[in-house]
């Protein structure tokens, strides 16, 4: 059972969380690493229909951990403005929790690669994109994290600013 957020006023809606995941370009995947130690690794990703997709090398610490335990979390920081005069940061972030799986189906892998290519090279022609995928796909492993639970939070100052802009009482 997921924990309830303690500071409810700062909680982001599920639609705000999804928007952050969709516009983000990198996040940190946390898995159960060697000897029970957490292993957190920064990754590029794409958000697609309730799941996060990312690619990696076909071997290594991350894949070993995923094969050992499918449970993982993925954190994306959307805003992190240091406000030195107030001894704080104005932050906004999301953490998605779910289960990972290594994609095995060739059509599913191709679709995932295509989504990643569209996100990170949006101006590329479909022909050039397909050529790049053909060239690089052989050495890639693709992983999906199905989102089971997601929380988002922002600094109270951002909540207050949003309320001011919407002309709502603080």
Number of strands: 7
Task: Walk across the major sheet and give the strand order.
Answer: 2-1-5-6-7-4-3
- Could you tell me the radius of gyration in angstroms? 18 Å
Largest sheet: 7 strands, antiparallel
What distance separates the N and C termini? 32 Å
Report the average pLDDT across residues: 90
pLDDT under 50 segments (min length 5)? Answer: none
The shape is: globular
- Report the β-strand fraction as a percent range: 35-45%
What letter string, H or E per element, gives the SSE order?
Answer: HEEEEHEEHHEH
Helix content: 25-40%
Structural class: alpha+beta
Total number of helical segments? 5
Describe the protein in words.
With 170 residues, the protein is of the alpha+beta class. Helices cover 32% and strands 38% of the residues. The chain has a 7-stranded antiparallel sheet with strand order 2-1-5-6-7-4-3, with helices on both faces. The longest helix is centred in the middle third of the chain and has 15 residues, at 106-120. It is globular. It starts with 13 loop residues before the first helix and ends in a 5-residue tail after the last helix. The mean pLDDT is 90.
């Amino acid at each position: 059972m997921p924990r309830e957020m303690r500071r409810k006023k700062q909680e982001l809606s599920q639609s705000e969380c999804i928007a952050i995941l969709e516009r983000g370009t990198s996040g940190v995947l946390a898995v159960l690493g060697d000897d029970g130690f957490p292993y957190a690794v920064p990754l590029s990703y794409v958000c697609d229909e309730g799941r996060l997709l990312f690619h990696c090398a076909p071997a290594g610490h991350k894949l070993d951990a995923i094969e050992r335990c499918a449970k993982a979390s993925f954190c994306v920081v959307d805003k992190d403005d240091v406000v030195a005069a107030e001894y704080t940061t104005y932050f906004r972030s999301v953490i998605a929790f779910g289960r990972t799986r290594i994609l095995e189906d060739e059509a599913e892998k191709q679709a995932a690669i295509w989504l990643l290519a569209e996100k990170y090279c949006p101006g590329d022609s479909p022909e050039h994109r397909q050529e790049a995928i053909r060239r690089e796909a052989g050495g890639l492993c693709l992983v999906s994290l199905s989102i089971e639970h997601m929380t988002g939070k922002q600094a109270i100052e951002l909540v207050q600013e949003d309320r001011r802009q919407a002309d709502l009482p603080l």
